[in-house]
Amino acid sequence: MKNAKKILARTCLIGALTLLMALPAMAADKVLMMATTTSTDNTGLLDYLAPHFTKATGIELKWTSVGTGKALKLGENCDVDVLLVHAPPAEKKYVEQGFGVDRREIMYNDFVIIGVADDPAGIRGKNVVDALDAIRSKKAVFASRGDNSGTNKKEISLWKAAGGDVPEKEAWYVQTGQGMLATINIAAERKGYTMTDRGTYIKYADTLKGNPPLKVLVEGDKILLNQYSVMAVNPKRCTSAKYDLATAFSDWLAGAQAQELIRDFKLLGKPLFVPNAK
After folding, report:
1. Is the separation of the CB atoms in 237 and 169 below 8 Å?
2. Which residues contact 198 (CB under 8 A, 6 or more apart)?
3. 256-264 and 243-254 helices cross at what angle (nearest 10)?
4. Longest CA pairwise span in the chain (Å)
5. Which segment of the chain is annotated as a signal peptide (predicted)?
6. pLDDT tens, 111-121?
7. How many CA within 13 A on the CB side of residue 158?
């Protein structure tokens, strides 16, 4: 009888130890790694959404915030499971190349050109092409991220639309190689201009109690639409990618709860993003 009790106790102990050893692996299986653009992080949107996602699904969301170009590269290198980015032409090419799957539009805002209130290049109220042409003509300071981010890709396309090459060799064209908030601050220090997504601008204005030195001078063109999309890393290329978790995240983002949360996310009483999942 004593031997039977000892065997039972030993069996229970081994079972408990086995379960304890398995728990970290089980927990790791429920962690989703995402690469995303700086604007979703800098604005606080992800900190706002992540707890709701975890509560709804039991999946922990972790993310790396970089420019869209670098985010796509992280997916290509199989370093993450899912991407939340904002450069549609690059994203579509990425899917065509077999790196990403199940691309899905989630939300949008728009790009704006901001600058000091006295507006030395006289761009206030102009369309974006005429505004960039005026900045070039006046050789006014323009701070560019210069980092292959979604914002930088868009800016480059707009310079070309304005009828010339990107002025990367001009002294007045400052390539920061930094994120959006840092680039805005450099533009402010140099009393110049920059292009930003509206969400990051509102966050910037909020940190300065609604009275930032740089004001929105150019806005409203259809060409300034800034679409954000989610897509999974292709599990056929990256066998370690957690496609099931990525799909759960995509489905949740496109669902009613997340879309309402995105709609309600505001600073200074203004929405930073507009949900548009289909």
Report:
1. no
2. 109, 110, 111, 112, 216, 219, 226, 272
3. 60
4. 96
5. 1-27
6. 999 999 999 99
7. 28
Report, as an integer, the average pLDDT of 223-242: 98
Q: What is the CA radius of gyration of the chain?
A: 23
Identify the structural domains of the chain with CATH numbers, from first to last: 9-108+228-275 (3.40.190.10), 110-224 (3.40.190.10)
- Count other Cβ atoms within 10 Å, centred on residue 85: 29
One-letter identity of residue 170: E
CA 124 to chain centre: 28
Rounded CA separation 171/190 (Å): 12
**From CA 189, how far away is CA 158, in angstroms rounded?**
24
In the block, tokens 């800034």 appear at: 226
Q: What is the 3 state secondary structure string of 115-174?
A: EECCCCCCCCCCCHHHHHHHHHHHCCCEEECCCCCHHHHHHHHHHHHCCCCCCCCCCCEE
Q: Model confidence over 19-49: pLDDT tens digits?
A: 445 444 445 589 999 999 999 999 999 999 9
pLDDT in tens, 124-183: 999 999 999 999 999 999 999 999 999 999 999 999 999 889 999 999 999 999 999 999
Task: Specify which residues 215 forms β-bridges with.
Answer: 115
